Amino acid sequence: MSNKINIEQLDTNNVFFKDATLVIKKDAIVNNIKSIKKTTGSKIIAVVKENGYGLGLANLYNIIKDQDIFMYGVTSLCEAIALRKEGCKTDILMLTAAVDSDELLELVSYDVVIALGNKKQIPELKKIYEQTGNKPRVHIKIDSGMGRYGFNVDDIPDFNEYKDFLSIEGCFSHLAGGKNYKKTVEKQVQIFKQALDKIRETGVDTGICHISNSSATMTFGALGFDAVRVGSAILGKVAVKSDLEVSVWLESKVLSIYNRKKGEHIGYGGEAVLKRDSSLAIVRVGTGCGVALMQRGPMDNTLIGGVKGVIKRLLSVPFMSVQINGKSYHVIGRTGISHLAVDVTDTDVKEGDVVKLQVNPLLIHPYAERKII
Length: 373
Prior knowledge:
Oligomer: single chain
Mean pLDDT: 91
Radius of gyration: 24 Å
Strand order of the largest sheet: 8-7-6-5-4-3-2-9
Largest sheet: 8 strands, parallel
Distance between the termini: 16 Å
Structural class: alpha/beta
């Protein structure tokens, strides 16, 4: 990254310097999609919400656009428009049950399939049909347990009454997960099936049906339905065991190396205490890049988990690690807003070496460079 600054072009209300690059491995993403297709035998709804899961929506779209994607999933109007601006001719599904009349009109004008999960949407969609002569395209959203959007199985409208002004092309729900994942998924699938039966009893074709998100797709496949919705799985970053390849990581470099004495306290709060004379590599990334929420294991918000976390800090057990020159090294002390320290004692690590961090790309600052390899 260049340190040269053009003072005339500097936006003094957006003064960010991120000595980090979010690296995106194109082949890994393509191979992940191929693997998901082969494993599930289902249509792929590629979810590209939140700016393509942090990769950049255009970056992700242009990597996967030739992979026979059945539909793209978004959660905002601007994402749908951005896809169209990139030349996307494929169907787009708005996963959020939008109710604002202007937003709904815009979605229809861009030929976006709308999640129909709120009775308040129906009169607005009817008005749009009367104004434009175009039937809004919808996928009916069922709330099977997530509790956010969708019709309850016990309060499903008679969609047959709306077929004159709506094009009903599919139905879907979203899995919430839980401690007993298999049992929770089975329960939600049963509720979804009950809702589909009720809709079909009125003479309405439920069209393309889908419920599997990334974790469910890699665990159970399509669960007997027509399509799977995958976002994090495309990136190879799922919370279940899989053969997918992680396709994105953060890179920085070693800024400097300092020698510290046994017993010294390191970082904010002095939480880490060195147990030996140590060499620490300073890397110019931290909470300001989104690295703060990284940890070595899954988040544990229970009381016992909190106690274990305190014990780990007292014992100077590192919460995360990084890779330098292909080897793993522990981060020492609490991560700062723009720096972290890595224990590289008795190694050949030197200033300028590349540091690789596994991250959630959604958390990475938008000013960090995105690089496709």
